[in-house]
Amino acid sequence: MTENFEQLRQKALSCQGCKLSKTRTNVVFGVGNEQAKVMFIGEGPGENEDLQGEPFVGRGGQLLDKMLKHVGLSRKENVYIANMVKCRPPQNRDPEKDEISACGGYLERQIELIQPKIIVCLGRIAACALIDQKFKVTKQHGEFFEKNGILMMGTFHPAALLRNPYSKPDALTDLLKLKEKLAELS
Q1: Which of 22, 75, 101, 168 has the maximum number of C-beta atoms within 10 A of its C-beta?
Q2: Which segments within the chain are labelled E, that is strand?
Q3: DSSP-based three-state secondary structure for 158
Q4: Distance between CA atoms of residues 22 and 153, nearest Å
Q5: pLDDT in tens, 21-67
Q6: Would you call 32 helix, strand, or coil by DSSP?
């Protein structure tokens, strides 16, 4: 029997599948509308996310929420937000391949259950894992790719936008392209 969304969440909450489980405070499963047409996927939880058990709740998450609002989207209403790995890598380092692999089944099942029309990869790690290993966010952001019947787009990670605010206009343009693509699909 394949699990439903709540069973999958409970399974993830008790996961000991990789070394990240030993240093986490909380599993950060995901948040949002489980029937959303758009799913945002980041690389992994940061410190605030680990403490609160919800993705993108720190400064980067606040920026993401503002940008989503600008294009008529919201984590409470019409998007779902998750990460490649469900536990925080120490010192917010990039998740390692074995950690991404250990969490892969959770993310794959989330995608199967949500059935998004579009996945937006937030940052290089997610885009390289889900779109193309050689994906270059600075060159390919805002472009749509189709994989397994799902449109995918890579864009800048909100934390990267906080470090490099000059990329904010490009990221906002990407979200406007997302809005246009959603309108086309409706």
Answers
A1: 75
A2: 31-32, 38-42, 79-83, 118-122, 144-147, 150-155
A3: helix
A4: 32
A5: 999 999 999 999 999 999 999 999 999 999 999 999 999 999 999 99
A6: strand
